[in-house]
């Protein structure tokens, strides 16, 4: 039983560290600077305030040399090897083919592929692969993609708890546990509980969740309808007396303040990029109502009131045909915070951006100047080569199958063998996971699964810098007495509750914290507090480490709590509240299942 004790005031050093924690929270939530830059600032402040933080200049950069940081970096490259060979894509297509038009089988297949794959490779590329697969399956079987995408994200999170390498959070938690308790995680340390958690989540999503997930996007709806483009797309006929005749398309568009998407001559699209307009041409335009009205007042220009411009009108039949595509901005990349104009997005990829969707909100005007966020979805038009370049860029996910990507399928056995070897070597304690993962990187490049130039693009550097910043912050929290003070507050507030109840409270507190800041930051800050609290109440400290680890990796209450949730936010057309409606009952179940599971397998 827990005995309430007297809480001593925090030492001055702890107050300074609390201030840095609060600053880190604010920076990570509001993002006045990119997350990686904020992490560097945190490193600087920890060193500058060494008299209070106890973190020297050398210790402030220790996060870059941490085994967790380097292992996470290596795992990004290993995951890229799996992605480049199309392993997950091939598996998903075969399983989905088995599911056919049965919605329950489709959902079970998506959950199975996402969950099991995420146990061995990073869940972000898994979800990136599954988004177009889910969208394609939904369109072929007249199912709303919204019914599939949210379960894919949730399953990938719970699947990440099958092994040590499932998420970066697990690796970081293992590093913190080794420092505090001398007990790092083994490769399959929590596989038993991870399997229970994944199966529980799968059953919930199949039995209850499928009725709670809304069909925000109607089945098989055209993209122009889905993005509400009707009022913004029109056709005009150009007469002989029109001032647009003999002008280049770019000049005419600037004159009329419209965007010319297509020039039709004799009913066929003109193939050149910037042709001269001739009398008798018909122009397919994107324009506001005001711009269209102004255009209709020009002599010789007739707006066709009965024109109904749809997907087929914008997907031209020539060899390098133009297509419509949804493009998702992945979270924590160089695109977030910038504008399309600053990124020169249209020029770089040779596409026209027609609309932007942020959750259920669709923006049609002044898109170029809108500050982008992770999870934003763009409706773009370009030829297949342009869409292919977008698909190959790690900052973007094309949300439907335009053309089958050129995967290195002949190297699938090699890539799987390399990852399997890394797992086996670590599980059998032949070499540490860090050594095995780095050897796997070398093997991926040597065998051609990943090309040398792709290594650096494979790494999510914002995550690496975030780890490097929060690791010394966790050390400062521990050394300053801050963790001990917070633990004393927990113990005093817990009164006479049994240790298993306090364990559940730590799970809940970590879950709520992860909805605000990153899961990695939650682990670094909460594990020292949990270990200290456990020692004060006579509980098993390792159980509290596990509770924090599981809670930080299963954030299902909001779209901002986990990056895969943001990735499906736009393509699914979800509302912010959809996540809470589906995730809150699931999180309540997981609170009970995980707490009891830890008590059963490890004791409290």
Automatic annotation (TrEMBL):
GO terms for cellular component: plasma membrane. It comes from the Archaea. One of its GO terms (biological process) is potassium ion transport. Keywords: Membrane, Repeat, Transmembrane, Transmembrane helix, Transport. The keyword tRNA-binding does not apply. The chain crosses the membrane at residues 12-30, 148-173, 193-213, 414-446, 458-477, 484-510, 516-535, 542-562, 582-602. The keyword Nucleotide-binding does not apply. It is a multi-pass membrane protein. It is found in: Membrane. Residues 220-301, 312-396 form the RCK C-terminal domain. InterPro entries: Cit_transptr-like_dom, DASS-Related_Transporters, RCK_C, RCK_C_sf. Gene3D superfamilies: Regulator of K+ conductance, C-terminal domain. Its main location: membrane. CDD domains: SLC13_permease. GO terms for molecular function: monoatomic cation transmembrane transporter activity. This is SLC13 family permease.
